[in-house]
Amino acid sequence: MKLYTRTGDTGQTSVIGGRVDKDDLRIEAYGTIDELNSYVGLAAAYVDPARFGDLSDQLQQIQHELFDCGADLAYATEDEDRYKVREELSARLEVWMDQYQQETPPIEKFILPGRTQLAAALHVCRTVCRRAERRVVSLFRTKQGNAEVLIYLNRLSDYFFAASRVANYRLDQEDVEYIRSANVFGKSGK
């Protein structure tokens, strides 16, 4: 199999059920999810499985689920019977976040992205995930699709925030608070 097909040389690409321009909202949405998946792979490369076995496994699972998100968005017409992203994926992310929040100290203020390479990479994942979410919102404004993808991406960006905090915590690095931040997370920070 050749890696090049030449079918996209005129600025169009295939989706499930047809062809669209490469700058179509659908392509922007799942293309940004593909970009996110690459950043998740980069973050996973910084993971020490001995210290972060749970995170390592979760990131790999998330990468598979991001492919599922892209596949669900690639349908030119709705096909609910073939959708892969379901409510239980978002619910599982909530469980993981709750576990990480219990492990880390409370926060009251915004924190600066970074401190360790792993946390910084997870923050990049968080921000690219938010962009992917915005692209899906734009897509759904004009076309129908699997609403669970949008919910999953919203939950996933929060997961990356929780994971970045646990990465710093396990590496004995305190998060750096934004010095002009109000107490936005309440008194408990949990």
Automatic annotation (TrEMBL):
It is an enzyme of class 2 (transferase). GO terms for biological process: cobalamin biosynthetic process. Its EC number is 2.5.1.17. One of its GO terms (molecular function) is ATP binding. Pfam families: Cob_adeno_trans. The keyword Hydrolase does not apply. Keywords: ATP-binding, Cobalamin biosynthesis, Nucleotide-binding, Transferase. Residues 3-167 form the Cobalamin adenosyltransferase-like domain. Transmembrane segments: none annotated. It catalyses: 2 cob(II)alamin + reduced [electron-transfer flavoprotein] + 2 ATP = 2 adenosylcob(III)alamin + 2 triphosphate + oxidized [electron-transfer flavoprotein] + 3 H(+); 2 cob(II)yrinate a,c diamide + reduced [electron-transfer flavoprotein] + 2 ATP = 2 adenosylcob(III)yrinate a,c-diamide + 2 triphosphate + oxidized [electron-transfer flavoprotein] + 3 H(+). It comes from the Bacteria. Signal peptide: none annotated. Pathway: Cofactor biosynthesis; adenosylcobalamin biosynthesis; adenosylcobalamin from cob(II)yrinate a,c-diamide: step 2/7. Homotrimer. Belongs to the Cob(I)alamin adenosyltransferase family. This is Corrinoid adenosyltransferase. The gene is yvqK.
